[in-house]
Specification:
With 285 residues, the protein is of the alpha/beta class. The mean pLDDT is 87. The longest helix has 30 residues. The protein has a single domain, classed as 3-Layer(aba) Sandwich (Rossmann fold). It is 40% helix and 14% strand. The chain has an 8-stranded mixed β-sheet with strand order 1-7-8-6-5-2-3-4, with helices on both faces. The structure holds S-adenosylmethionine (SAM). S-adenosylmethionine binds next to α5 and β3.
Length: 285
């Protein structure tokens, strides 16, 4: 029973002793856990891969902040609007695959698209359509989504700049990947386009696209060309989102840091996204 008497410690040092004991105990537990994970990893090598992947991801996350030119998305009015709205968006993390955006990135894409309510979207890099599906599910029913990828028959591909990096990109993906959406069933909302972004004619879309998502070829020359086309396609309220802004994709990393010299570009924490808002402070859905 509590009769209101305060419990006094025996000595003034007791709280420090307890604190010290707590930290030593936690450190000891951490060593034991690390050893268990190491032992588990020896028998399950894929765990080590996941672990290293996590470490590299964390380093990449902090590396982006070191350059200083690209700003934190938290500084943007759009971020303040998004957090104030406290809304929920549609996302299915289970269909994320090697080569697609990650689950957290899918949620961010869904949130940004739902908040901006673009009338037109242009995606470069369809692949399985995982990101396309997030765009379909999180935009108004009259939004049209153009999504461009290489022809599904590899024999048809003649890359204008047959760079080593560009080639590696193509090898890593399965061009015949099954799409997560059925363009025909989306009632004209999704327009699948086929071609090489370097040679594709973007001129019919100039000034008409509210949201461009760039995730095709990751070599510097391609991302530069894709970005120039994206800037030409942007409408007055247009936004560009790049995927793979990290040191693992040096072409994207270099290009984003370059354009951040004279444009306000944001990185989005816990993702590999970089974002450009044409009408920086005035973007409202
Ligand atoms: C990383 S995947 C896109 C993943 C997709 N955005 C997602 O998260 O679901 C890159 C895609 O870009 C396509 N691609 C690569 N180079 C391209 C090029 N030069 N022109 C058009 N598409 C290209 C590849 O065929 C591949 O499907």
């Amino acid at each position: 029973m509590n009769d209101g008497t305060k419990i006094r410690s025996n000595s003034a040092l007791t709280p420090y002793f307890l604190k010290g004991y707590y930290y030593v105990f936690r450190a000891f537990k951490f060593i034991i856990i690390s050893l268990k994970v190491l032992a588990y990893g020896i028998f399950h090598p894929s765990v080590i891969f996941n672990f290293l992947f996590g470490v590299v991801t964390e380093i990449a996350e902090f590396h982006k902040r070191c350059g200083g030119r690209v700003r934190n998305f938290r500084e943007a009015a759009l971020y303040r609007d998004l957090t104030a709205a406290v809304r929920f968006f549609k996302s299915n993390c289970f269909n994320a695959d090697f080569g697609t955006i990650r689950p957290m990135e899918a949620q961010v894409l869904a949130a940004v698209a739902a908040h901006l309510r673009p009338k037109t979207v242009f995606e470069m890099g369809t692949y399985t359509g995982f990101s396309t599906l997030h765009l379909i599910e999180n935009t108004p029913p009259d939004t049209v989504i153009y999504t461009l990828d290489l022809p599904q028959d590899k024999a048809e591909i003649v890359l204008r700049n047959d760079l080593h990096e560009a080639h590696r990109d193509i090898k890593n993906i399965n061009l015949n990947a099954r799409r997560h959406f059925d363009a025909a069933r989306e009632g004209g909302r999704v327009v699948e386009l086929f071609g090489d972004t370097m040679t594709f004619d973007f001129s019919p879309y100039y000034g008409k696209i509210d949201f461009v998502f760039i995730d095709a070829n990751h070599s510097y020359l391609y991302v530069k060309s894709d970005t120039e086309n994206a800037l030409r396609m942007l409408s007055a309220r247009g936004v560009i989102l790049w995927h793979d802004y990290d040191f693992i994709h040096p072409g994207v990393f270099k290009l984003i840091n370059e354009i951040a010299r004279d444009k306000r570009i944001y990185y989005i924490e816990r993702t590999r996204y970089a974002l450009y808002i044409k009408n920086a402070e005035g973007v409202r859905p």
